[in-house]
Design a protein that fits this description.
The protein is of the alpha/beta class and 252 residues long. Helices cover 46% and strands 15% of the residues. It has one domain: NAD(P)-binding Rossmann-like Domain (Rossmann fold).
Length: 252
């Protein structure tokens, strides 16, 4: 309650669920999206493209000007827009797009906002990665998986630097999440490979090796993990990764 929280990509999918979870706990929240959005009660909104340096600067400045800084950074922004067809289809433009969306957007906001946490000697950062960082699906998400793996390593690296300064850094690694974005991904697979949407879903499940609990996660279930790691209840958890995948990862 009363914490100042920045959620990147907080207007739909997992991001919106994360915003709602922090609001339910009494936090003050700021978020952004590329396009104008309908107002969300209790949320400060900035129209900004976080895949650009200018967008990150606009959101960070608004967080400082409107909230006086942030206590919690929840980096939820991410996704994949690359086509199917194998690694040869991934041009430099596709690679740069995936890296800007899934890695550099978080890196830039961290660089802009963590210093005010260090100055106060307190703060929490949560990076949303993906189980694809260790279990990449074939074909269409190669660049996404590589970018999320980089985010995972980056998160661990800065945790070593920031822990002694009072700033905790952790990551949440979701598996399949049942969002509109997941439906769009299945449609892209269908277009690339033919067949039905169910064929595309089975292709994903085959790549994952199945989900032991029999379903993907609801967005709010993953948002609960993000909120927990950001909270004082997790005050001794640092440099860790919390996997929320219904048992998908088959190894210890």
């Amino acid at each position: 309650a009363g914490k100042r929280v920045l959620v990147s990509g907080g207007t739909k999918g997992l991001g919106r669920a994360t915003v709602d979870r922090f609001l339910a706990g009494g936090a003050r929240v700021i978020t952004s999206a590329r396009a104008a959005q309908e107002p969300i009660d209790g949320v400060e909104f900035v129209q900004a493209d976080l895949t650009t340096a200018e967008g990150g600067q606009a959101l960070a400045k608004a967080a400082i000007d409107r909230l006086g800084g942030v206590d919690i950074l929840a980096h939820v922004l991410g996704g994949s827009t690359t086509p199917g067809g194998g690694f040869g289809m991934l041009t430099d433009d596709y690679w740069l797009s995936e890296l800007n969306l899934n890695l550099l957007a978080a890196v830039r906001l961290d660089r802009l906002l963590i210093p005010q946490m260090v100055e106060r000697g307190a703060g929490a950062v949560v990076h949303v990665t993906s189980i694809q960082s260790v279990l990449p699906l074939p074909d269409a998400t190669t660049a996404y998986a590589a970018a999320k793996a980089a985010l995972r390593t980056y998160s661990k690296s800065i945790s070593k630097e920031l822990g002694p300064k009072g700033v905790r850094v952790n990551s949440v690694s979701p598996g399949w999440i049942m969002t509109d974005g997941a439906d769009v991904f299945l449609q892209r697979l269908q277009e690339a490979n033919g067949g039905t949407l169910e064929d595309a879903r089975q292709l994903v499940l085959k790549g994952l090796g199945g989900i032991p609990i029999g379903r993907g996660a609801e967005p709010l279930e993953v948002a609960e993990a993000i909120a927990f790691l950001a909270s004082d209840r997790a005050s001794s958890i640092h440099g860790a990764e919390l996997v929320v995948d219904g048992g998908t990862i088959p190894t210890v």
